[in-house]
Design goal:
The chain has a 7-stranded mixed β-sheet, with helices on both faces. Helix 7 packs parallel to helix 10 (223-236). 45% of the residues lie in helices and 15% in strands. By secondary structure, it is of the alpha/beta class. The chain has helices at residues 2-16, 29-37, 57-63, 76-88, 110-118, 134-137, 140-157, 173-178, 188-198, 223-236; strands at 19-25, 45-50, 67-70, 95-98, 123-127, 169-172, 203-207. The chain has a single domain (2-236), classed as Spore Coat Polysaccharide Biosynthesis Protein SpsA, Chain A, CATH 3.90.550. The structure holds guanosine-5'-diphosphate (GDP) and magnesium ion. Residues 100, 102, 104, 167, 213 line the site of magnesium ion.
Length: 238
């Protein structure tokens, strides 16, 4: 009974909050269509940040009533910073959820990310390692690379993100008002985590499901070094 009351309470809180979703997207016409169909009804606004996709990503997003922001410089970090500019120029939201446009993260699970924000977490990460059959989805190299980067993040920052490279994040206003993101590309998530630590914010970790992507990944193994460097340089400069 207590749990049920709590569930209802969180549902009520979510309804009263303004929740926005940001999706960095480059040539994800197949994925974005699926993701947008799964966005839960409590979400007030969806923002897709496009980098001159050569396919129908922007068109599909606009047709679904998403705000489409344009970023000229390639990279997921640059796309996120374009959203940060939009946010600091007056776009108001209590909570912002970020996920990929490739349908690897389940938009229907978004409540799992928002719930800890309602309960006081200032940032939330979705942990893909809790997903069934994760080793069947990620190659061994990707799996162990992600494990290694997460251990490095934990050792350097004294805080355990469980999955530092996850693409499913939830942000509070406190975080969005304080975070300074220098990452231009796939070091974005490492930078987000470093900013949680630098600003001494509390981090919630929730188990999520993860599936194979639609379309082609832009991530290369060499990006592992970029992520390592981001973890190190932010630690050194903090
Ligand atoms: N706007 C924008 N989005 C990007 C860029 N690079 C990657 N993304 C998006 O960032 C998300 C994560 O990229 P993805 O290729 O799925 O990487 P992976 O999840 O690590 O395999 C996807 O939604 C991509 O479309 C970029 O240069 N610009
Ligand atoms: Mg992806």
């Amino acid at each position: 009974m207590k749990n049920k009351d709590h569930e209802e309470n969180v549902g009520e809180i979510i309804k009263k909050k303004k929740v926005a979703v940001v999706i960095p997207c480059l040539n994800e016409e197949k994925g974005i269509k699926k993701v947008l169909k799964k966005i839960p009804p409590f979400v007030d606004k969806v923002i897709v940040v496009d980098n001159n996709s050569t396919d129908n990503t922007a068109k599909i997003a606009k047709e679904s009533n998403a705000v489409v922001l344009f970023e000229g410089k390639k990279g997921k970090g640059n796309a996120f910073n374009q959203f940060m500019k939009y946010y600091s120029n007056g776009f108001d939201a209590d909570f912002v959820v970020m996920l990929d446009g490739d349908d690897t993260y389940d938009a229907r699970e978004m409540k799992k990310i928002v719930e800890p924000l309602c309960n006081g977490s200032q940032v939330v990460v979705g942990n893909r390692f809790a997903s069934d059959n994760i080793k069947g989805i990620m190659s061994d190299q990707t799996y162990w690379g992600n494990k290694f980067l997460t251990t490095m993040a934990k050792l350097l920052y004294g805080k355990d993100p469980k999955d530092v490279c996850t693409g499913y994040w939830g942000f509070s206003k406190e975080f969005l008002n304080k975070a300074k993101i220098k990452a231009e590309g796939f070091d974005l998530e490492a930078n987000l985590f470093a900013e949680v630590a630098r600003n001494k914010l509390n981090l919630g970790v929730v188990p999520i499901n993860y599936r194979s992507r639609v379309g082609e990944s832009k991530l290369k193994y060499s990006h592992g070094f970029l992520i390592m460097w981001r973890l190190l340089r932010n630690k050194i400069s903090s």
